[in-house]
Amino acid sequence: MTDPSDDLQTTQRLRVGMIGLVAVVLLIALAGWIIGSADHATANGTVEIAVGNVTGGNAATGEPLAELGATPGTLNDQVADAR
Questions:
Q1: How far is the C-alpha of 65 from the C-alpha of 35, rounded, in Å?
Q2: By CB neighbour count within 10 A (0-12 exposed, 13-18 middle, 19+ buried), where does 18 fall?
Q3: Better pLDDT: 80 or 20
Q4: What are the backbone angles phi and psi of residue 30, rounded to the nearest 5°?
Q5: Are 61 and 74 in contact (CB under 8 A)?
Q6: Which of 14-18, 32-36, 40-44 has the highest mean pLDDT?
Q7: How many angstroms separate the CA atoms of 38 and 44, rounded?
Q8: How far is CA 15 from CA 3, 11, 12, 18, 20, in A?
Q9: pTM value?
Q10: Sign of CA dihedral 67, 73, 76, 81
Q11: Which residues contact residue 66 at a Cβ distance below 8 angstroms, ignoring those fewer than 6 apart?
Q12: Mean pLDDT of the chain
C-alpha cells in the first residue's frame, strides 16, 4: 500500500506545477497583448515621439551624460558654455 503522506505530496506537487503552468501562460498572453497594443498604436500613428535639442545648441562633446545634464562635464565644456 502507498503511504498517505506520499499521496498528499504528489497532489501538492501537481497543484504547484499546474499553478506555475497557468502563471506562465498568463504572462505570455499579457506580453502578447501589450506588444500587440503597441504595434496597433504605431500602425495608426497615434504614438507621437518628441525629439528635442538635447545638447542646447552646442556641438557634441563625446560625453553623453554631460550632454543630458547628469554629470557636470569637463572644465573645457564649462568654460565654453560660460562664453
A1: 30
A2: exposed
A3: 20
A4: -65, -45
A5: yes
A6: 14-18
A7: 10
A8: 19, 6, 5, 5, 9
A9: 0.46
A10: positive
A11: 72, 73, 74, 77
A12: 76
Secondary structure (DSSP) of the chain: ---HHHHHHHHHHHHHHHHHHHHHHHHHHHHHHHHHHHHHHHHHT--------TTTTSPP-S-HHHHHTSS---HHHHHHHH-
Pairwise CA distance, residues 71 & 52, whole Å:
19
The grid coordinates of residue 59 equal: 556641438
Q: How many CB atoms lie within 10 A of CB 22?
A: 10
What gap in Å lies between CA 83 and CA 80, rounded to an integer? 6
